[in-house]
Design goal:
five-stranded antiparallel beta sheet, SH3 type barrels, rod-shaped, 18% helix, 2 domains, ten-stranded mixed beta sheet, alpha+beta
Amino acid sequence: MKEKYMEKLVGKYCKIVTKEPGEERASVVTGILRDVDYEDGFLMVDSDQGLGCLSITTVIAIKPASKRKKKNIKKDKEAVVGIGTLIIFIAMVLVAAVAATVIIQTSDTLQNRAYAVGKQTIHEVSSGIKIVDITGYTDSDKTHIEYLAISITPRAGSYDLDLNETLVYIEYDNLTVLSLAYQNFTDEGRLYNGRQNGSIAKEVSPNGIFNTLNLSCLTSTNYGVIVIRDADNSIVNSFGLGTNDLCLILINLSAAFPETHGLEPGEQFSGRLVPAEGAPGIFVVSAPNAFHHRVVDL
């Protein structure tokens, strides 16, 4: 294209078709024609890629073109939230709040339950009755054991035990359950001639432990208590067996075993002292084949 009519298009937006030597396909360049240099054989075009030059020898065709207008989107244009989106958002917030409330309440309930179970487990594991000694008392003819004295104290680290809630289980020919016979106990008649009118003896008689209690209050369903060590009078005042306390549980075997009027020589039976809280004290009583004295160490 050696004709000098291209200078008429200078400053206009043009569509320029070019084809390099050796190429089969032509290419199109759009932009503003800035200048035409016939001497050097170049066109200066300001396109979207910037200002550049094209060889006049590669130009096949050139014609004016209309420039496409670009849409200018404002950067500060705010989107409008629809009412449907707002309802969905509120519903999600409500669902999350309800779920969080349920989780918090559930965790709080589980925490309180775990605390209660842990506290109860500690009571059950650490509390309990320790059996120190067991002694029997025969009849005057030394044919059978009529009464049984069990020395008990709390286990190490145990909480206070309530004797009023402590039961004695005796397993022989049948199962016998004994509870504390406190109904005969009164503040006005604690000691009478060295003996106890009720079921709890605060002091031991000089005639021995089996002459301390009023043995008539001991039946097939009741046992009595003799205080051996009680610095704070917790056993006498509130039936509480505390740390370092020591007492004797007296059981009427002649009433518990009416067929044999007590435990005969060579016989044995098992039993348990079960407190309201804590581990029970388990014992097995085996009578010797002969009773040489009325007081028998079992």
